[in-house]
Write the structure tokens for this entry.
Amino acid sequence: MKIVIVGAGFTGTQLASHLIQEGHEISLIESNEETARHASNRLDCLVINDIGSNISALEEAGVPAADALICVSESDEVNMIICSMGSSMQKTKKLLKIARVRNTGYKKIIGIDSFIHPDIEAARAVLASLSHGASGNIVTFPGTSYELASVHIKEGSHFDGFSLIDFHSFIRDEGLIALIERGKDCFLPAGSTELCAGDLIYIMARRENMSHVFNLAGRTTETVLKRIGIVGGGQLGSLIAEALLDAHNKFKKSIKGLSSLGHQLLIIEQDYNICKELATRFPKAIVLNEDITDEDFVAEERLGDLDLIITATPNQELNIVTAVYLKSHGVRRAIATVSTPGYKTIALQLGVDVAIPVKTVVVDSILSHLAGTNIRGMQSLGDGSFEIVEVEIEDGSPAINKPVTDFKLSLGGLVMLVNRGEISFIPQGDYVFSAKDKIIIMAKSGGEVELEKFFAAQKNSK
């Protein structure tokens, strides 16, 4: 595919890097000279230092012949305008147009195929982690009873020092350790792999067995999240608050195990005008117009008695420091929203229970829209070197009637879950691929082209 990306910040460069690795032809437009130079030095693609709304820049980037136009500049309005301009520049074929917008009020505009709302996706990730007591990042798979959870192994726990060969002697029912982060390394496990304290493991299991998994990793008590604090009353904090307080909220209803929880909610926001709006909008919540860095305020309001703190300000460093600080004062669980995977790693190493990298969420959502017709979704894990890919096996696929042992990716991959009709299961060695099966795969980043070739219908199939 020929793809034009407007905006060479973290999101734009991560998208470009991933798509170049997949073999796509990428052009990147960036108005800031230094940012454009940095992107040009890092990426093997055309980088144009110009304003994205400049017709000549769009023409030079190849929009008239492009398959997709992705706008991820810092301005919502500019992103939408450029997408509309792209529509008028191409007459011969359908141009896929994707705009990142932070204002959730923008729902659908003629000429734009997809809006990507970072705060909505981040809020959904926060809520998913609450369904298991904020013990780790949780990935849910609609239509199945399985989830993928990340959990740190504590020293002296059942998981500390045992081989994966013995895994099923510990886990009730089906389960699978799909990925391990150990220091700076991130890798797919083998049967001989031994776990050790400090490892961050990603484990697939049925939802009802996740508490048992967390206990084996060293969490000895179940945390009931009744008294919750949100630091930051902006758009992200408001979306989370709305979901926690509204029983009919669409995010809350989509996450199993969350809708039945009752919450006492405290919102802390430094801006007085925002606080007035929050108090009107959420009469059941306690809204405090305070500076979270004020130690006297923390003591006076007894914030250490909270079961959970969610830090959702625009300042990721403040979010991490606040989460760690309040945990040192007795808060039982902490979720911090950050920008990038690097800050997620720092947050987890400092003791934050869950870290949500917002920009990575945006990249994953855009990649899902660009994937082949049989790829239903993608989500990056670890340091971004691995991803979860949801694939549907099409009629005429070369995978049909082949055993799972024939599935091999040059960069590495693992079939984690199969959803066949109303049945979901972790496949064993005798599993044979069938048409219409929905497959969840852990794959090294850059393997989407191979996945599409293996699971998509062959063009000459009848």
About this structure: Residues 138-217 form a domain with the Alpha-Beta Plaits fold (CATH 3.30.70.1450). The mean pLDDT is 85. The chain has four domains: 2-116, 124-131+226-357, 138-217, 371-455.
